[in-house]
Structures are given as C-alpha cells and as structure tokens.
Amino acid sequence: NCMDPGWLISHKYTPSGPDNLQVAIETRLDKAGKLQPVLQANWTLKDDGSIHFLNATQLHVLRMSTNEQLCIRYSFQTRLTMRSPSEEKWLFSSDVLVLNPGEEYDVSVYNIPRPEQGHSNFDVNRQIQVPGCDHTNMKKTQLCIERGSLWKPNISLVHEPVNSSLAVIFSPSTMCKKYTVLMRCGSKADTRLVHTENQETVNVKFSLHEWPRFCCQFDAEIIPYFPQCDNDCPRLRKTNNICKEKPPQTDLLPPGYLFVPIAVVSICIIVAAVMCVICRKRGKHYVAPPSKDGETPQTPLKPQPKVLVIYSQDHHLYREVVLKLCAFLQAKCGTRVLVDLLDTSSVSMVGRLRWLEWQRQQLNNPSDKILVLCSPGVQAKWRSMCGQGQVKLKEDVLCPTDDILIPFLNLFLPDMHQAGMLGKYMVAYFGDISSERDVPSVFDIGIKYNLMKHFEELYFRILDIEKYQPGQVSHIEGIGVDEYSSCASGKALRDAIETFQAYQIENPDWFEKECVLSEEEVISEANQLIEPLQTLPVFEYIPPIRDGLPVYIHNVDINESCSTVHVLTPELNPGQHLSSVAVIEPAMNSDCRHLYAPSQVEVLTEVPLYHHSTGPESAYVAEPVFRSQSSVQQNWVSLSENIPLPELSLVQPVEMEEEEEDFDPGAKRSSSGSDQGYSSKGSSQHETPLEEDPVKALARLQEELF
Length: 706
Description:
The structure is a single chain. The protein is an alpha+beta fold and 706 residues long. Among the domains are: 19-143, Immunoglobulin-like (Sandwich), CATH 2.60.40; 151-241, Interleukin-17 receptor A/B, fibronectin-III-like domain 2 (Immunoglobulin-like, Sandwich), CATH 2.60.40; 306-521, Rossmann fold, CATH 3.40.50.11530. Strand 20 and strand 21 (472-473) form a beta hairpin. The longest helix has 22 residues, at 259-280. The protein starts with 18 loop residues before the first strand and ends with a helix. 20% of the residues are buried.
C-alpha cells in the first residue's frame, strides 16, 4: 500500500507540494519487444525556499476496481537548487507503469517528507480511464492480445435436418485451450464445455429435441477462457433461423363452403386485436356494458405513478438536463415528478432532511419509484462519504437548496437494501454526458439504465410492466432513443443534452473546475461579478403637505378720513373637492371708493346702494350676486358692509353694475403656493355720478339749509 516507515518521523520543516501534474495513456514497446499500455506522467517542483528540505518526490497510482497500489519514488542524495541548471523548474516524468485496459486509475504525486498531521495537504491527483481492448490503439497491445482482441473465430451454425441437430463450428485461438459453447432459443439454453489441442476448427453439435418444435431462431454464444481475463473474457455470438417458409399452394383452394367460417373467424380476430391495442394504451379505461338502470359504470383509472428524482448539481448545464428530463416525464409520460428544483420554497422552509422524509412518506404506493441520476458528482460524493477526501461543488454552494444527494444517501440507504425494496429504486445515467463508471458501487446490485438509449425500459419499470413477455415484445411509441425528440419537451431535453455535451468537449476538465476548496472562494467570485453591475439610482420624491386648506390673506389699508368698512368673507363650496379659501380685504381711500380684489372666479354683481347722506359718514351696502356657472375651483365669496346705524336717516336706492375688469399689471395681487394655481386680481372702480331729478335736488338742498 505504498506506506513508508519514515512517515512516522516528525519534521519541523516540510517542502511545498508538487505542481502541474499531467497524465496520459501511451503505448510503448517493452524490452521483449511487446507493445504495452503505459502511464505517461509529468510534474514539476515549486521554485521556493522549501525545496531546501526536499528529500524525495513520489508518484502514486491506485487501481480503482481492486485498490491495487503502485509507487515510484525519486530520492535525492544532495539538496536541490531552486531551479535546474537551465533556469527552469525541476521537471520529473515517468513512463514505466503498465496499466490494464478498460480500468480506471487515480494518479497522485507528493513530496517527501510529507506534511505533519493537521497541516495543509498538498497532494496533486488526477483520474484517468484506460481505453478498452476494442479501441484501435489498444487492440495490438500484449495485454489485449492475451485477452483475444485479435481472435477471429468465424462462427457458423449448420442445421442438419436428417438427425435433427444444430452444429456450431468455429476456429479456436492459439492462446486459449478452453471454451464454453452456449446455445439458446427463447428461455431454453444448453451448454457444452470444449477443450482444444492444436485444432484448426471445432465442431459442437446440439440435438434439437431439447427445444420445442416451434423454436426457430437459435443464438450461439462462445465463451473463451484466455489467461488474462479467464472467466471475464468477451463473448462472441452468432444467430441463425432454421425455419424455412413453405411456398404457397395456389392449386389447392379450400371448398366454397369454408369461406364463410374463415371470414367470420378472421373478423373476430381483427376486432379482438384492435380492442387489445385500445385497452393497453396508457391512460385509457375500459367501459363496462350498461347496467340494468341504464347507467354505464367505469372501472377506476390506475393511479398516476410518482417518481422522486435524486441527482448531483455538477454544473448549471447539467441541472438544465435534469429539469428537462422531469418535464419530459410529466408532459410525455404522464408521471408525477418530485424534485427539489420544483419545490424550492418547501425545501428552504423545512430543510433538506425533512423534505426528503416527507417525500418518503408520500411514496407509499407500490407503483411509486425513486430515480437516481448518476454523474461524476455522484461518484465523487459517494467516495467522499467513504472517507476519500471532501468534495464541494460550486453549484451546491450557489444553489439555495444545497446538495440533496448526501442527505438522500444518509436517509434512504438503510431502506434500500431491505427485502422487497430493491424494485423501488432505479439507477440511470446519461450516456452522452456521463458513463457507467459514474455509478457508485452501492448501486451495483440494481439495473443501470443508459438514457436516453434505455429510456423505454426505464419507463416500463416505472409502470411495473415487463417489456419482454412470452411470445411478445411491448413497445411504446414516442419515447425511444430516435423518437423522444419529436415532441416539444423531448426536443428541449435533447437540446440540453447536446449543449452540455458540447461544453464538455470544449472543457475536458470541467468537473475539476467545478470542485472548490471552500464556500468563501465561490462567494468571493460571485461578489466580484455582482459589484461591477451598475444599477439605476432610485429617487424618492416627497411632496410637501400642508395641514388644512390653503389660505389667502390680503391686509387692509385703513384711511382715517373714511369710516366705511368693507368685509369680504369667503365661503367654501362643500360639493367640490378641489376648492380653496381666499380672504380678501379691500383697501379704503379718502373718497370712499370701493376696492375689490376678486379671485379668478368670474363674478357679476348687481349691488343695490342705499344712500342717506352726502357727508363723509355715508355708508354703502353691496350685496353681490354670483353667476350660476362657476369655474372649476367653485370659489364662493360673500361681501358684506358694516354701516353705523345712527347715520341711516334716509335711504334712496341706487342701482350700480359691477363688472370684472381686465388684469392690471400694476395692481396689487397675491398668489398662493398651492398646487391648485389660484390667483387673485385687484381692481379699483369709481362710482359713476348719477344725474338727479331737479325736484329731488331742490328738496335735498332745502333740507340741508334747514
């Protein structure tokens, strides 16, 4: 296991880790001239002061299937300088480790002495998959030749009707002396064990009496036992149909009386076949014959199956593939899909474990299933649970619901291996963007479905229907590998798979880029992307609000020489919402001229004046009459005049008309700051002298002289 007793020795100073590890698979000739698949590994040393404490550097290779470990150590007798004599970083390479075709390896390098326990870990590792013997570059390697990669058996099946037998003839390999020949027709199979010694051809016969007489198609399978693969060598098959069609006998027609029963039987068979096809369609129900009361009872529909989808958020493009698959299951297949991506609010409120426990309680129907979509992230997280280092993906940090796979494994793993529960769990992977090696070993007990190649078999599993039954093979149109993209949801799924596949081709190390060391690293990168974004400023406008209605005040200029008082009292119009109040007090002059300051309201007043004296103590009462058509503001103005009572001795009515004058720029006016836009005009209007009756004028003169 590549352990070193020197690791138990404590060191005060340890060197930094290696850098820039690159691995590849190449074929080389060994000393015997045989072609071998070898690991080509290159790495460098960091050019810092810690190289002073470097004693050795080591290459470690782990075979994933068997945990076999291989190590190569480069030890230094003297201290290395920070750089090589060519002023470049020290470069190390290895091409001597022979690898097995078709195996997956974990390659890592580290410097010695290794860091102390609890210190920073600096292992640099890579995973690599060795191509199988069916690959063009691997067929001629010695390991693949010893597994039969160049063997051409030339299998042929010969039917001998005389003795009712079937012979299997093939050419053996010079490197294999033992074979098993398997003959199968339907569910019946028979085997023969064959040993060869320098034979050019081998003939193995099977008696056809071992199979039913209706067997026509026979499958012959040869299992070789090469030294490098033994019981796990590739098998070769050959199929032959021994039934021959008899020529039609046109001269022997049935008698005329047989046409009627034959036609009736044929029609009945056709009707029965059509009814079977209709009844087998998904979502259809059988209608029973009418009952005695005239009603047509119907059998209840089969409950809609529910599928809980578990996955790993390897990449945002892979998450789109999962979502499109869920949409395809719901839209095309009529399956109710339970996935955290479509229920993020519930997952955020109750948490992942409670959400999963709730879903497990919902999956109480025997037809409900749990689908695990395997990917590189699923395999990496399973290894992390087994103690092979921590794994944290970028999408798990950015997603609000976090990872759902590890809580699922912790909660459902004990239930998965119980008796009778294996049929509830299904394991699948997308063959175009993943592979079967991404399936963790915990799922090896079940069937692995390659999507979308085996999607039809997966859907039959969801429906609990056997695709292959005695005498028939069921098929569902529209969900096969060449048909599923004909609908809108299937086309979206295919586009999502092709998009992610193209991204993988452009970025072969995409999964390593998605793995992060800490959440702070992802959050800092996200903040760097958010900070440059410039958002438009938000302005808040708060209008000033005054308590109560706007008030207009115009001060009064008082002239001591005149005792007449004019008061304008504004009145509010309760029927209008946009009304305002204006208090206007007119100015007085020595000639007792009336000064009005009306508002924008158009006012036409007919003022009756009552005159009692010609002296300066005269008083006038003006009662304006407002027009019925007012402006929008509907301002009401009441004009009253206080008159000293003792001076009213004789009153004679005089009519006076008062009209609105044009605006005078020099006149005094006031405007409010209200948003209603009211304004007031001030105007001065003299009374027009009236011609009196000579008789009345004489009477008045006499009264004054008296």
